[in-house]
């Protein structure tokens, strides 16, 4: 692309700044592990893992090299009553060294300690829709280490063999950053639109408010969701949300019997909150404080918003003790506060009139998770910098398929503040043993080593990586075809135990076969036009296998035919139309 080359030229003439902690690693000298989170001065000893762990029996084996201790009064409870989410505090290296010195043995094997504290997740309101969506994946210890590294500042490199849950790890890192650092913004970059869509579909399934999601570039039409996350789709969503919220404010006004037209804009709704809602709540809290937690019935009797919550499941305020009643009242108040917080956030779209201004406002101010392909980043860099685009974290999926220069451009989509880049985390997820970037010019590919991605270069330099080590996609027999390429790639339990993976495939002698198809009528591979490769004998053979599978009962939607060439793909379609389309027993 001409635009990409122009971006590279502009960067060469700009005083762009990479963060200090990345500088030496990108240039390829110094300590390759200097940006690992354990070596960063600002690493985070206390992490709220939110919904990462399904239960305490999931958390304990997730930290095999640590001694797990439960803090405070929770230490007396059985594990089944220690419910997530958990806040985990890690003992630092200094404390370990002090223990070694006190023991008199500098090389003593002293286990590191982590303190676990169950956190009471605050209820967000009395309606069923207020129950947050939760992660359902039972992450392996290696995946948990990748999630922990991703939440900490620094460079995190995750090597993910096929089927090891790279996308699940990426999505959980994004979710944890979103909840732990609500003021920070995360940029997601991938090589292809398809990878971006897979990520987005999983992000939507977690507890991330969709008003904070934005998808830049093309390809969003392939998202398998009825929601539109493109710029104009988000503007329409925000405007519809504004009307919905103002409707709720109007209902609140009627429930309190307040006269006047107070709910036609975000601004008037804000005044209504300040002068009518906030004052009622402060008066209610003052009366409860005066009572000093003595009379349990006062919580319900004095609650000022009973009429507004008449459509909520009853009883609105319930529980076995004072604290539970009080928490019910507080959850209702959080629901009301959230209405006005959201109105504050959409106020900008009310003031701005043009669609373009609104999309820019969402991009620069409102969205917390912004996704784009590396090509889009290169095409739009100048425009984003001029708008004042800012972000704190970058997560790159399919990093090993992105050209080095295309990996570098997303680091520089913002103007340095006081000569310092504000980037705090860079998470790269990929697999350098799979496809490298595609470079069609042989001279560039071979002589300038252009097909080597930055991810691969970092691996070769010895930058620490987290290697995911359990696959859940292939039968163990198929996995053994490629697991030799990785350090210690094993299988997840369901691959070993589930009957779908244990039973034979009817009609076939083997799980996999490599078949040599001889030339047909003396003709093998052909090129009807340049770079358009075809092989008729192979196409006829594979379609015959497909027909055989259909006749013995395999459903068509369970069968995939993969080929590496577009020419062969079009030939396969032609052969399928000729052999299968007219036969109702087989079909396409």
Description:
- With 588 residues, this protein is of the alpha/beta class.
- Helices cover 43% and strands 11% of the residues.
- The protein is built from 21 helices and 15 strands.
- It has helices at 2-12, 20-27, 56-62, 93-103, 141-151, 166-180, 193-204, 231-256, 266-291, 297-301, 322-351, 355-366, 374-387, 404-408, 442-447, 454-461, 476-479, 493-497, 499-502, 536-551, 566-579; strands at residues 46-48, 66-70, 86-90, 112-118, 154-159, 186-190, 213-215, 369-373, 393-396, 425-430, 466-467, 470-471, 490-491, 525-529, 532-535.
- The strands form four sheets. A seven-stranded parallel beta sheet has the order 7-8-6-9-10-5-11. A four-stranded mixed beta sheet has the order 1-3-4-2, with no helix packed on it.
- Helix 11 packs across helix 12 (355-366).
- The chain is globular, with a radius of gyration of 29 Å.
- The two termini are 37 Å apart.
- 30% of the residues are buried.
Please tell me the overall pLDDT.
88
The fraction of residues assigned to DSSP E strands is: 5-15%
Task: Specify the biggest β-sheet.
Answer: 7 strands, parallel
Low-confidence stretches: none
Quickly count the helices.
21
Class per helix and strand makeup: alpha/beta
Rounded to an integer in angstroms, the radius of gyration calculated over CA atoms is 29 Å
Distance between the first and last residues' Cα: 37 Å
**Spatial strand order of the main sheet:** 7-8-6-9-10-5-11
Shape: globular
**Percent helix among the residues?**
40-55%
Q: How many β-strand stretches?
A: 15
């Amino acid at each position: 692309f001409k635009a990409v080359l122009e971006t590279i030229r502009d960067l060469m003439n700009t005083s762009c700044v990479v963060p200090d902690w990345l500088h030496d690693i990108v240039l390829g000298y110094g300590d390759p592990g200097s940006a690992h989170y354990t070596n960063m001065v600002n690493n985070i000893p206390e992490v709220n893992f939110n919904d990462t762990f399904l239960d305490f029996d999931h958390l304990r084996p997730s930290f095999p090299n640590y001694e797990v201790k439960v803090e405070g009064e929770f230490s007396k409870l059985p594990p089944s009553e220690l419910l997530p989410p958990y806040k985990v505090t890690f003992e630092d290296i200094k404390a370990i060294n002090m223990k070694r010195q006190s023991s008199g043995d500098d090389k003593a094997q002293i286990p590191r300690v982590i303190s676990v504290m169950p956190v009471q997740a605050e209820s967000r309101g009395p309606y069923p829709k207020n129950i947050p969506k939760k992660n359902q994946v039972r992450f392996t210890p290696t995946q948990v280490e990748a999630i922990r590294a991703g939440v900490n500042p620094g460079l995190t490199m995750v090597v993910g063999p096929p089927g090891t849950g790279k996308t699940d790890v990426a999505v959980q890192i994004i979710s944890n950053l979103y909840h732990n650092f609500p003021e920070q913004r995360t940029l997601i970059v991938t090589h292809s639109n398809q990878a971006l869509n897979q990520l987005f579909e999983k992000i939507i399934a977690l507890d991330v408010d969709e008003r904070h999601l934005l998808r830049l570039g093309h390809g969003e039409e392939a998202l398998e969701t009825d929601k539109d996350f493109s710029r104009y789709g988000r503007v329409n969503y925000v405007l519809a949300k504004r009307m919905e919220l103002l409707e709720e404010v109007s209902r609140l006004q009627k429930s309190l019997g307040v006269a006047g037209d107070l709910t036609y804009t975000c601004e008037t709704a804000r005044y209504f909150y300040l002068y009518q809602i906030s004052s009622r709540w402060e008066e209610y809290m003052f009366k409860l404080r005066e009572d000093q937690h003595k009379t349990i019935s006062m919580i319900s009797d004095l609650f000022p918003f009973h009429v507004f919550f008449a459509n909520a499941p009853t009883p609105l305020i319930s529980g076995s003790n004072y604290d539970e009643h009080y928490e019910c009242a507080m959850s209702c108040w959080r629901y009301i506060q959230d209405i006005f917080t959201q109105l504050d956030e959409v106020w900008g779209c009310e003031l701005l009139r043009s669609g373009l201004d609104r999309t820019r406002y969402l991009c620069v101010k409102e969205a917390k998770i912004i996704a784009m392909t590396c090509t889009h980043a290169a095409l739009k860099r100048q425009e984003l910098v001029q708008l004042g685009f800012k972000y704190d974290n970058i997560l790159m999926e399919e990093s090993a398929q992105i050209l080095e220069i295309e990996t570098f451009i997303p680091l520089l989509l913002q103007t340095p503040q006081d000569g310092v880049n504000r980037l705090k985390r860079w998470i790269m997820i990929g697999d350098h043993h799979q496809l490298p970037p595609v470079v069609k010019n042989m001279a560039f590919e071979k002589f300038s080593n252009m097909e080597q991605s930055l991810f691969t270069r970092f691996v070769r330099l010895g930058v620490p990586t987290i290697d995911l080590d359990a696959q859940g996609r292939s039968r163990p027999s198929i996995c053994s075809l490629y697991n030799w390429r990785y350090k210690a790639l094993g299988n997840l339990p369901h691959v070993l135990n589930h009957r779908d993976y244990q039973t034979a495939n009817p009609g076939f002698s083997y799980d996999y076969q490599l078949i040599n198809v001889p030339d047909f009528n003396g003709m093998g591979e052909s090129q009807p036009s340049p770079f358009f490769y075809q092989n008729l004998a192979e196409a006829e053979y594979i379609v015959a296998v497909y027909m055989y599978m259909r006749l013995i009962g395999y459903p068509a939607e369970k069968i995939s035919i993969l080929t590496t060439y577009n020419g062969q793909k079009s030939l396969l379609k032609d052969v399928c139309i000729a052999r299968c389309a007219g036969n109702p027993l087989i079909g396409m």
